[in-house]
Specification:
The protein has about 500 residues and is mainly α. The protein has 20 helices and 14 strands. It is elongated and about 110 Å long.
Length: about 500
């Protein structure tokens, strides 16, 4: 395969919001292709029309655009020579391959009804059979082209009777799958069933469509999640039975994402532990349920890229902060782990904090503008840029600039009881002229304000500590927040004076 141009694909199904594990799969495909000068394709595998969710396809496209891992070609990104990239638009191409397998003896027509299949399932479960599905152990007891005469089969087909086409799995064979990450993985056909390749509704199943499209689109490497490893032997057999074994892609099955070292990362885990499992917010069109997203939570896309890059891969160095371009240069499949990758929420916050600190004030201001307008009616971008400059070193999420710092946008409605207790009962007489004094400061810079406040404390015989506590509580309503001089510069003399006088009036 060394003479073939590297071509990889990300092939999600539009059955709901794109999981963050899917974004990682897309990222690894992207990095692998870019590193080797290849192509990265987005293919939508929508053969299961019964599970189709409205809006899910667009959600996938917007998610990839938001994180910045855009395919060279595919649905939503422009056609290439192998279009169309939506399987429902390719359905006329699959039946020929299913028929080819029937003619070569590697597949067969099955006419069993749903009631007959349910009866078979119960029978196998009761017998505690190793494979509780349609396969070599029971196929000769069922209603299919292996047990019916050629005339009976032809009659049923001519009459338009419903059927499926099943692959015919040989008994007691070993199927070897060469995996870039896991090495050689051996499967026994005695534990495999005769999967349906072509359904009665005229659509292929995932397995046939997946293999046929990878072959047609000249995919050289299939990089996907570990949950697909069990399907790999079936796909290897399909390549062999269809005569395409010399063009079979190399496989790499990525480790699962785990919330705490156990089980697969789920939405419930995210809700429980306080982080999203989807890149963007998604509203289920059927239930109305809203799933939170990294973007709406206040993550920057480059932070999400950095977070998921390390979920299963390590460059072998001490470096942790990587741009997308740096990841392309550093990435290799040899450094992808076999074991499940644990999601570390605190580490995710650390990445996001880093990228917020290094982001431009203008970019952050544009991000928080809708939120500041919605909550406080503030739409002054220049003011918001100053807010971001002051607060971006103090937050974990962009939205916290607004949501956790309301005092920047509005005077405190009440004052913290703990803060008032720490302030104690100083002589308020010394603070009566503070607003007027602040208004008289000509050089209203943070450094000069700090010196001026020291002078005020000396002149009015109040403790500097009490003065700073009093001023901070007046401005913030609490004893936390940025430095008092910096806050005063941001809010201006008039606003600071109003807040001090309001606080005094309530004491």
């Amino acid at each position: 395969m060394s003479d073939r141009k590297v071509r990889v694909r990300f092939a999600p199904s539009p059955t709901g919001p794109l999981h963050i594990g899917g974004v990682r799969t897309a990222l690894y495909n992207y990095l692998f292709a870019k590193k080797l000068g290849g192509d990265f394709i987005l293919r939508i595998e929508d053969t299961d029309q019964g599970r189709y969710v409205e809006g899910a396809e667009d959600y996938i496209i917007q998610s990839l655009k938001w994180v910045g891992i855009e395919p060279n070609e595919g649905v939503g990104f422009g056609d290439g020579p192998y279009a169309p990239y939506r399987q429902s638009e390719r359905k006329d191409t699959y039946h020929q391959f299913a028929e080819q397998l029937v003619k070569s003896g590697h597949a067969y027509y099955a006419f069993d009804t749903s009631e007959e299949l349910e009866a078979l399932r119960k029978k196998l479960e009761a017998a505690k059979a190793p494979v509780t599905a349609y396969g070599s152990a029971v196929r000769m007891e069922m209603k299919n082209s292996l047990t019916l005469s050629a005339d009976e089969v032809a009659s049923k087909l001519n009459a338009g009777e419903q059927y499926v086409i099943r692959i015919k799995i040989s008994e007691n064979e070993e199927v070897k799958v060469q995996d870039i990450i896991r090495g050689e993985v051996v499967f026994s056909t005695s534990l495999m069933d005769d999967k349906v390749l072509f359904k009665s509704d005229g659509m292929p199943t995932y397995h046939l469509a997946n293999v046929a499209d990878d072959y047609a689109m000249q995919i050289t490497h299939v990089i996907r999640g570990e949950e697909w490893l069990s399907s790999a032997p079936l796909h290897v057999l399909l390549y062999r039975y269809l005569g395409w074994e010399d063009k079979m892609p190399q496989f790499a099955h990525l480790p699962l994402l785990k919330p705490d070292g156990n089980g697969k990362l789920s939405k419930r885990d995210g809700d429980k532990l306080g982080f999203p499992v989807f890149p963007l917010e998604f509203k289920d069109p059927k239930t109305g349920e809203i799933s939170s997203g990294y973007r709406e939570k206040g993550y920057l896309p480059e932070a999400v890229i950095n977070i998921i890059a390390f979920l299963g891969w390590n460059p072998g160095t001490e470096q942790e902060i990587y741009s997308l371009e740096e990841l392309v240069g550093a990435f290799s499949m040899e450094h992808v782990h076999k074991a499940g990758a644990k999601f570390n929420f605190e580490k995710a916050k650390w990445f996001n904090e880093h990228y917020i600190k290094t982001a431009s004030d203008e970019r952050l201001a544009n991000h928080i503008l809708p939120l500041a307008q919605e909550k406080f009616g503030v739409n002054d971008l220049e003011f918001l840029k100053k807010v971001c400059a002051l607060l971006k070193d103090r937050v974990s999420f962009i939205n916290d600039i607004v949501c956790a710092n309301s005092f920047v946008f509005a005077a405190p409605a009440n004052y913290s009881a703990d803060a008032l207790k720490k302030l104690g009962s100083p002589n308020l007489t010394g603070f009566q002229n503070l607003s007027g004094f602040i208004n008289s400061i000509e050089d209203f810079s943070a450094a000069n304000i700090e010196n001026s406040l020291k002078q005020f404390a000396e002149t009015n015989e109040v403790k500097l500590g009490d003065l700073m506590k009093f001023t901070r509580i007046s401005i913030v309503g609490d004893l936390s927040g940025p430095g008092v001089p910096d806050l005063m510069v941001l809010l201006g003399k008039e606003e600071i004076g109003k807040r001090i006088n309001s606080f005094l009036a309530q004491q």
